[in-house]
Amino acid sequence: LPYYYELATQYATSDTWRTPVLSDTIPNRMYLFTGTSFGHIRPQDVPPTGGWPQPTIFRDLSTHGVSWRYYYQDSSVYLSSFSDWTTYQGNVYNISNYYNDIKNPSQLPSVLFIERASKLGLDEHPTGNVQKGAADVANIINAFLQSPAYANSVFILTYDDPGGLYDHVPPFTEPAPDAIPPMLRSTDIKADFTQSGLRVPVIVVSPWTKPHYVSHVNRDYTAILKLIETRFSLPALTARDAAQDDMTEFFDFSSVQIPTPPPLPVQPTTGACSHSLEKAPGF
Description:
Elements: H1 2-10, E1 12-14, E2 17-18, H2 25-34, H3 57-63, E3 68-72, H4 84-88, E4 92-94, H5 95-101, E5 111-114, H6 130-145, E6 155-158, E7 202-205, E8 213-215, E9 219-220, H7 223-232, H8 239-243
Parallel strand pairs: 1-8, 2-9, 3-4, 3-5
Antiparallel strand pairs: 1-7, 6-7
């Protein structure tokens, strides 16, 4: 995965960036959209007729007059699981529009969200060729880097769950997002929503990003909500995103840090791992 390695090296990343809850993809995606999973802890939970009624970050943006757009790559549109879909589906576009929109910053919305391409097998799950997903992301990010929008924007790449089975760094304590308890079964470990999930990757790409930077601040990815809320003076959705760091640590606004995007390698899709190059930390 040379593209990701070089992108993270040139821009900024974190070794303590986490999912919001120790659960699967869907509850964690709920947090990214609403700042809470409103009690849900299982991916099998299906929305009621009309969709989940919880207010999303997209509703918050619209209510406060901040423009936004949501791009999908296949039939995966998680926003359609929420009642906000009925009101805001006109803000949802195919990814093909992104490549044209990014060339016209004067017409570009203030906030963009790009959905994973799970139905196309490009969401980097380990049962598929993760290099194909990385190449897809490289196309999206390269379009950003080569566009006039790069000069005053930030692109945040992250993942909705860790995908691994182990993390040697334990979760950290966080405030519960609300007073809704987890929907536990009798056989579940008795837990609550007062700790983070496991670590996931993040790369923060902007001309204002501190070059070659690694953050050590504990955050879960509702910090993206906090960054948006801070930038546009929006109220927090829940106590969880309200408590997050606003991510400004990643930037140095005293001067442009990376005015010209550095050369990045082409992401191969047929590369092979060399296990002989693997070494444990400290060796």
